Amino acid sequence: MVKAIFDGVVVAESDKVESVEGNQYFPASSVKKEFFTDSQTHTTCGWKGVASYYNLNVNGKEVKDACWYYPTPKDAAKNIEGHVAFYKTKGISFA
Questions:
Q1: Is the pTM of this model over 0.90?
Q2: Which stretches of the chain score pLDDT less than 70?
């Protein structure tokens, strides 16, 4: 079981993560939605497609664009469709 943890709180956990480019992509159903709000940020990856982002809110602490997902990934990235990845550089740890 892989867990994404912020400020001592488990914000996602699953035994079915996808690993891509050193990032763990969690199934969307394993993400605890009460800690997330939609972000207006979007970026583009040449082989994965357009990414959307979520802000993270835990214990009164907000982390903007803490995680991302590809709503409609390109064919080469279909394995991460319906999955969410977290930035390690924004205080999120994994166990």
A1: yes
A2: none
